[in-house]
Automatic annotation (TrEMBL), chains A, B:
InterPro entries: HTH_LacI, Lambda_DNA-bd_dom_sf, Peripla_BP/Lac1_sug-bd_dom, Peripla_BP_I. This is LacI family transcriptional regulator. It comes from Flaviramulus multivorans. Signal peptide: none annotated. It comes from the Bacteria. Keywords: DNA-binding, Transcription, Transcription regulation. Residues 4-58 form the HTH lacI-type domain. Gene3D superfamilies: 3.40.50.2300, lambda repressor-like DNA-binding domains (1.10.260.40).
C-alpha cells in the first residue's frame, strides 16, 4: 500500500493540500462539511500525518535523545523506564544510545543527536569522560540538556542526582553505630564524581566518629560493573588484613554481591565475621543470601524528574521564555537487611 | 548559536544551496576549489546536516523503532543491547518504546512509529496482545517488521526466537534423568506463545518418560514478572502437595527465585527436598543461594540477529529487491547449577 499523504487526500477530494491540512487540524476557516469529508476519508484510508515533515515545519522533532553508559544495568534500566513514561505521556519519542563507558562513542552520539535535530538530550556520562566539549556544544546549539546521576560539575545545565556523599556517610555511620570499626571500602574508578563523593562520605563518617582513616582498607575497583571484581578484591582484602577488618562498604551492589560470594564460599560468616553494605539497591540484593543492606537510589524517579525538567525547558524555549537551570537532589534511603 | 544550515553556508559563500549541498557530498560536477571552500567553511562553522530534512528527501529516516513489553527486565535489556550495537555500527538511531504489556499502548506506539516514518520496526509483543491488526498495518505500509521472542505465528514477517518447547523439554528431561518424578510447573499467562510452548515441552518430557501428567501440579502465574508470585505459588504448592512433589520447573527465573526464597525461609532444602529449574538465566540466578539451574536464552544474540535481519530487509527494500522472510531459531543451553 502506498503511503497516504496530504496530497493523496487532496487529489481524491479535489481540494488543495492546505485546505486538507487545515481541515484535519479543525481550523475555524474551513467549513464543517469539508472538514467532515476530509476527516472521513483520512480515517478510511488510515491516514497518519508524516511527523518528520511536520517536525521540520514546526522546528520541533518531538524526539529527545538519551545517552546512558550501559543498557544491561538495573539502575540505568530504571532511569530509562522513568524517562520513557514521561515521554509517552507527552507523545515524545526517545532515541536511546549506550556509550559503553566510551568517551569517543559518547561524543559521536551527541553529534548524531544534534545532526538529527532532536529537541533535547539527557545524558548520564561515561566513567571515562573527562572532556566536556561535546556537552558545551549541545548548549551552544541551544538544545536543552539534562545531566542525570553521572554529571559534569562544570557544565551549566540542569542536573538530577543524589547526594552521594551523604548517602555513603549514612551507610558507614550506620555500620559504626552497630559497632563495626575496621570498615573497608571498595571504591569505583578514580574519575567519576559519584565514586569520588561516595569515597568522601565514607571517609567523613570515619573521621566524625573518631575512627582513623586507613588507606590500606580502600580498594580501587576499575571495572566496577563486574561482580568478579568484587570477588577478587574480597580475596585480597582477607589476604591483606585477615581478622583486622570487620565490615565492607562498596560503591555498588555488584561488587558487594561478588564479595558475598567469596565470603560464602570461604565460610567467612556474614554479618558475624564481616558485615557488608552495598549501594544502589539492585533487585537481586533482596534475594541473595544473606540479603544485602544497600542504598535505594530511586532510578525511576531520577529518570522521571530528568524528563520532566527536559520537557519544561523545551517548552520554555518554544515560548521564548528564559530557562532557569535546576539542580534536583533525589532522596536516597538506607535499606537494612541481613548482611549487617 | 543559531543552527548552521545549507542556506547559511550558501549565503556566506555567494553560492546556491544546491551547489553547496553537492560540494558537501563530493559530487563530480562541482569543481575542486569550490568543494574545498565549502567543506572548510562547513567544518569551521561546525555544520551538521539536518538529517530529518535529509531523511525526508531520501525517503529514509535512518531511524528504526523498537517496542518491548518492559524495560526493567534482564532479558529485554539484553535484546536492546544487541539491537543498539548493530544499529550503532550502521549509524541508525533506535527509538525505544515500552508497552508495559498493554495491547492498546502497543497499538498506539505502532501508529506513532508509522507516522514518524521509521525505516523498520522490531517488536516483542505484550502478553495481552491477541489482535494483530496493528502488525498487519505495518506490513501494509511496506515497513520491514521483525518479531522477536514474543511473536504472532500468523503474521507473515521475519521472526527471531528460541525453540521454547525444546528448551523446556530438555530441562524437564534433565530433571527426570536425575531421578525426580513429581515435577511441578509454574507456567506463565495462558495467552503468550512462549508460555504455551514451555508448558507443552514440560508435558511432552513427562509423557516421553512415562510419567503421568498431573494437571494439579501446574500453577498459572499471571503476573509472571513478579517474583512474589513465585513465592506465593510455592506456598500453595507445598500446601497442596506436601511431600508429594520433588521438583519445580518455572517459566522464568523470577518465579523460581521467588519460590527459592519461600523454600529457604521454610527450611525446605534445595535440591534435597525439592529441585528447582528456571528459564532465562538472569544474571542474579548465578549469585543466589543455592544458585539456580536455568536455560540460557541469549538475549543479546536475539537482539543482534533481529537487527541484522531488519537492516537487510531495509536495504533490500531500497534496492527494490524481493524480501524473503526468515525464521531464525537462536540456540539455548541448559545451565546446571546447585538447585538440582
Amino acid at each position: 500500500m502506498p503511503k497516504v499523504t496530504l496530497k493523496v487526500l487532496a487529489n481524491k477530494l479535489g481540494l488543495s493540500t492546505s485546505t486538507v491540512s487545515k481541515a484535519l487540524k479543525d481550523y475555524s476557516d474551513i467549513n464543517e462539511e469539508t472538514k467532515l469529508k476530509v476527516q472521513e476519508l483520512a480515517k478510511s484510508l488510515n491516514y497518519t500525518p508524516n511527523a518528520f515533515a511536520q517536525g521540520l515545519r514546526n522546528q520541533e522533532s518531538k524526539i529527545v535523545g538519551v545517552i546512558i553508559p550501559s543498557m544491561v544495568h538495573y539502575f540505568f534500566s530504571n532511569i530509562i523506564d522513568g524517562i520513557l513514561k514521561e515521554a509517552e505521556e507527552r507523545n515524545y519519542m526517545v532515541v536511546l544510545m549506550q556509550s559503553n563507558e566510551d568517551y569517543d562513542l559518547e561524543k559521536k552520539q551527541v553529534d548524531v543527536l544534534l545532526s538529527k535535530g532532536v529537541d533535547g538530550i539527557i545524558i548520564s556520562l561515561a566513567n571515562k569522560t573527562r572532556d566536556f566539549s561535546h556537552l558545551a556544544k549541545i548548549i551552544d546549539y541551544n538544545i536543552p540538556l539534562i545531566l542525570v546521576d553521572k554529571i559534569a560539575k562544570t557544565i551549566n545545565c540542569s542536573k538530577v542526582l543524589i547526594d552521594d556523599r551523604k548517602a555513603s556517610y549514612d551507610a558507614v555511620n550506620y555500620l559504626i553505630q552497630k559497632g563495626y570499626k575496621r570498615i573497608a571500602h571498595f571504591r569505583g574508578d578514580l574519575n567519576p564524581q559519584n565514586s569520588i563523593d561516595r569515597f568522601l562520605g565514607y571517609k567523613k563518617a570515619l573521621l566524625d566518629n573518631n575512627i582513623e582513616f586507613d588507606p590500606s582498607l580502600v580498594y580501587v575497583c576499575d571495572n566496577n560493573s563486574d561482580f568478579s571484581d568484587g570477588y577478587e578484591n574480597a580475596e585480597k582484602l582477607i589476604a591483606d588484613h585477615g581478622n583486622n577488618v570487620d565490615a565492607l562498604f562498596t560503591v555498588n551492589d555488584l561488587l558487594a554481591i561478588g564479595a558475598i560470594n567469596y565470603f560464602n564460599e570461604n565460610n567467612i560468616k556474614i554479618p558475624e565475621r564481616i558485615a557488608v553494605f552495598g549501594f544502589s539497591n539492585w533487585f537481586m540484593s533482596s534475594v541473595i543470601s544473606p540479603s544485602l543492606s544497600s542504598i535505594e537510589q530511586n532510578g525511576t524517579k531520577m529518570g522521571e524528574k530528568s524528563a520532566q525538567i527536559l520537557f519544561q525547558e523545551i517548552e520554555s524555549k518554544h515560548k521564548q521564555k528564559p530557562i532557569e537551570f535546576q539542580k534536583v537532589i533525589i532522596d536516597t534511603e538506607l535499606i537494612i537487611r541481613k548482611s549487617c
